[in-house]
């Protein structure tokens, strides 16, 4: 992931990184070029439910980010 952020930064492109859960360690990604590091989970739920809803959660997060550019 860090190499993708570096490549995007070198090319002058924004890089938004999505993760199921984002820990404090994710701050290091900003130092290598990430524009944003976002957790996609919506609400607290058991792991099985989180995995089942991950596709919908990712779509919702991506849609929200894309509206920033329009």
Largest sheet: 2 strands, parallel
The 3D shape can be described as: globular
Radius of gyration: 13 Å
Stretches with pLDDT under 50, minimum 5 residues: none
End-to-end C-alpha gap: 26 Å
What percent strand?
A: 5-15%
Element-level helix/strand string: HEHEH
Please describe what this structure looks like.
By secondary structure, the protein is mostly helical. Helix content is 49%, strand content 11%. It contains 3 helices and 2 strands. It has a two-stranded parallel ribbon. The longest helix is centred in the C-terminal third of the chain and has 20 residues, at 47-66. The radius of gyration is 13 Å and the shape is globular. The two termini are 26 Å apart. The model has no long low-confidence stretch (mean pLDDT 92).
What keyword list fits this structure?
70 residues; mainly alpha; two-stranded parallel sheet; 3 helices; 2 strands; globular
SSE order and pairing:
Layout: H1 2-10, E1 16-19, H2 27-31, E2 36-39, H3 47-66
Parallel strand pairs: 1-2
Give a brief outline of the structure.
With 70 residues, the chain is mainly alpha-helical. Helix content is 49%, strand content 11%.
């Amino acid at each position: 992931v860090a190499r993708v952020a570096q490549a995007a930064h070198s090319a002058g492109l924004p890089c938004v990184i999505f993760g199921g859960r984002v820990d404090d360690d994710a701050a290091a990604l900003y130092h290598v070029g990430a524009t944003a590091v976002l957790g996609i989970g919506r609400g607290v739920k058991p792991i099985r439910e989180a995995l089942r809803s991950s596709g919908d959660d990712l779509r919702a997060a991506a849609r929200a980010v894309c509206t920033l550019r329009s």
